[in-house]
Amino acid sequence: MQTTSLFKRCTAVALCLTLVACGDGGFKLGGGNTTASTSSGNPPREEALQTTSIWEAFANRNTETTVKVNKYIWSAAIEVLDFMPIQSIDPFTGVIVTGYGTPPGGSRSYRATVLIGILALDARSLNVALLTRGGACAAATTRAIEDAILIARPSVAHLGQSVS
Question: What distance in Å separates the CA atoms of residue 126 and residue 154, rounded to the nearest whole number?
Answer without folding.
Answer: 17
